[in-house]
Design brief:
Chain lengths: 64, 366
């Protein structure tokens, strides 16, 4: 648990957080514009979020 | 209905806490008997780490709680087939003697190694074992759990199929829960990605991996401690299956788009071909890592928080940790289903790319 390890882990979380936050934000905007498309937007949002989390976890386990 | 579900969830969490507490006592007594590392009094944090690692790894006996443990058969191939029960590793200081060959289980990763009569396993500088590894075909905890899940799925879905013929086309019982899910997989995963013409060939595989990953993830959340998809080998097997099906059902257009992409200058084509070829390997690889990392991370965090409950020895710390573990378990239920959905959807996407048929207006419009 050295300092560079912790800084790296923090950067990974930062990257994933910003990415998924942006997706969530634009999903909210889209749902506000067209509430009846909620199901499709939710599906697309979850897919994009899972892909980003995949990379984040991969980086985490490579680092470990 | 909601109350009942909450009751069941509470019981499951309590059982898992009880399980970890049982593990604590078990680990304590184990460490005072056998000091393979020469440490007599491990601190509480190290005992918890030891327990977590023990839970995440595969093991040769199925340990449910303190006192309830049943040994699984060990099948080794070492110039001759040796089949014995893993309870033999408990006697005689952990060394099993079969026709002059001695085997012992390594403490660090639970594998079986060939040793001399004293049962000593030698480590090199990096902490890795130097002894010879055996060709291990045993029924371990993971194999046994997968067999259980397979049997459960078989009974469930064949009963489901039969209930349709008996009831005149309307599902009864568990069918009412699974029918919308199966239709969802067909209408929202298979048909949009693969297309109307070819989706039927891939439906059995997509349905199987969806329900298999979902049930196995759920099993990992129960107190039985079967961490199946949190194991790189098993997710690798699923990813390899997806890769093989993509490769063997691919049409000429698919290979053309990889090696000789139309609409791109020739020099770029030569440059892009190896990258695209690497891409065909990296896509299933990412499937493997995504599933493994999500499930493994979830289990590690959950067990760490439960372990935190024992480090805080006051009322507030322990009860807050319990609450956090409870909420996280509910999130893990969502992650279990979501990861199954993502794996299935991405597999359907890759199949769709493999069997896609283009009209040939490539040179301009691509």
């Amino acid at each position: 648990m050295t300092i560079p390890n912790l800084v790296g882990a923090g950067l990974i979380v930062l990257g994933a957080g910003i990415g998924i936050g942006k997706i969530g934000g634009s999903a909210m905007d889209a749902i506000a514009r067209q509430p009846e498309a909620f199901g499709k937007i939710q599906t697309a949002m979850l897919i994009a979020a899972a892909l980003i989390e995949g990379i984040a976890f991969a980086a985490f386990f490579i680092g470990k | 209905m909601l109350k009942k579900a909450l009751h069941i969830l509470a019981i499951i969490t309590l059982l898992s806490v009880n399980n970890l507490m049982g593990q604590e006592h078990h680990a304590e007594s184990k460490h005072t008997e056998s000091n393979q590392h020469g440490e007599e009094n491990l601190s509480l944090k190290e005992k918890i780490k030891e327990d977590i690692k023990h839970h995440l790894q595969d093991s040769h006996s199925f340990h449910i709680t303190k006192g309830v443990e049943f040994p699984l058969p060990v099948i080794l191939w070492d110039n001759g087939l040796h089949i014995f029960s893993s309870s033999e590793f408990k006697k005689n200081n952990g060394v099993v003697n079969k026709d002059g060959n001695y085997y012992a289980i390594s403490h660090s990763n639970g594998h079986i190694y060939k040793t001399d009569a004293s049962g000593k396993i030698n480590y090199n500088d990096k902490g890795l074992e130097i002894n010879k590894k055996t060709f291990d075909l045993s029924i371990t905890k993971n194999v046994f759990s997968i067999m259980l899940v397979g049997l459960l799925m078989f009974l469930l879905f064949s009963g489901l199929a039969k209930s349709y013929t008996k009831n005149g086309g309307i599902a009864k019982g568990p069918g009412r829960f699974f029918e919308p899910i199966i239709l969802f997989i067909r209408d929202d995963i298979a048909i949009p990605n693969i297309g109307e013409k070819h989706y039927k060939k891939f439906m059995p595989y997509l349905l199987t991996i969806f329900f298999f990953i979902w049930f196995v993830n759920l099993l990992g959340l129960t107190p039985l401690g079967a961490n199946i998809t949190g194991n790189l080998a098993i997710t690798a097997a699923l990813a390899i299956l997806t890769y093989l099906i993509t490769t063997f059902s691919a049409k000429k257009d698919y290979w053309k788009h990889i090696f000789w992409m139309p609409g791109v200058p020739s020099l770029m084509k030569l440059f892009l071909a190896p990258i695209e070829l690497l891409g065909t390997f990296i896509k299933p690889f990412s499937l493997m890592v995504r599933l493994y990392a999500n499930i493994m991370a979830g289990h590690v965090v959950l067990m760490t928080i439960i372990g935190l409950m024992f480090i805080f020895k006051n009322w507030i710390g322990s009860s807050l940790s319990f609450g956090l573990a409870f909420v996280l378990s509910i999130l893990e239920l969502l992650v279990a289903a979501l990861q199954a959905y993502i794996f299935t959807m991405l597999s359907a996407l890759y199949f769709g790319a493999a069997v896609a048929e283009h009209e040939h207006q490539h040179e301009e419009a691509h």
